[in-house]
Specification:
Blueprint (H helix, E strand, L loop, with lengths): L5 H19 L11 E6 L2 E7 L5 E3 L3 E2 L2 E6 L12 E3 L6 E2 L12 E3 L6 E2 L12 E3 L6 E2 L20 E2 L11 E3 L6 E2 L12 E3 L6 E2 L7
Parallel strand pairs: 2-5, 3-6, 5-7, 7-9, 8-10, 11-12, 12-14, 13-15, 14-16
Antiparallel strand pairs: 1-2, 4-5
Length: about 210
């Protein structure tokens, strides 16, 4: 009768479980602190640049024990080799043009708690088709998604204003403007040649010139 190595089987099962947990239970490894250019102000860390050539970026929650709370203006601007960027829910602000020109990014989720996303943040992200915005922002700033590949977006009900050129020259097919929005800026949807459905609301008070022109 063949003996069964029960101890070996148990060990193998444990190792397999650990492997599954590391790959499928949120065990993604944050990018190391040395990959970033940083500033520290009032005990909080600001990401102001990226020094590595690794295309997949996971912004760390802390650097040297201090919380990372801001992505500064132009921090990842023009990094054409970057394919993905993951942010954590401790970040409060994303600065102007911080991801502009990141041509290879296809999607990004902006975590809850971020209250400010600057002008031109995702401009010229030529492969960015999908984005999730948090329910903590009140304004979609000037040219935020201009000339990106955006096809779908849900505008949070906290947004009060969509500024000039915000979605111009994107691939949007339909758009629902929630009742919280009171202003549509100049040419904010201009050049959206695939736009077939626009659902407005009664709360709109200002529609600037050419908001939907081609």
């Amino acid at each position: 009768m063949k003996k069964i190595n029960l101890k070996g089987i148990i060990t193998a099962v444990i190792l397999a479980s650990l492997t599954l947990c590391l790959t499928g239970c949120g065990g993604e490894k944050e990018s190391p602190a040395k990959d970033f250019v940083t500033l520290e102000i009032n005990g909080e860390v600001i990401i102001s640049g990226y020094k590595s050539q690794i295309p997949d970026i996971i912004v760390p929650k802390k650097i040297k024990g201090k919380p990372v709370t801001i992505i500064s203006d132009g921090a990842f601007n023009g990094l054409k080799f970057v394919t993905s960027i993951k942010l954590h829910d401790g970040i409060k602000k994303i600065g102007t043009g911080s991801f502009s020109g990141c041509e290879q990014i296809t999607s990004i989720a902006v975590p809850e708690g971020i209250t400010e996303i600057g002008d031109n943040t995702f401009r010229d992200c030529e492969k960015l088709e999908n984005i999730t915005l948090p329910n903590s922002i009140e304004k979609i700033e000037t040219s935020m998604f201009e000339s990106s590949a955006l096809t779908n977006i849900i505008i949070p009900k906290t947004v009060k204003e969509i500024d000039n050129y915000a979605f111009s020259n994107t691939n949007l097919e339909s758009i629902l403007i929630p009742s919280s929005v009171t202003r549509l800026g100049e040419e904010c949807f201009s050049g959206c040649h695939n736009l077939k459905e626009i659902i407005l609301n009664n709360g709109l008070k200002i529609i600037d010139n050419g908001a939907f022109c081609d």
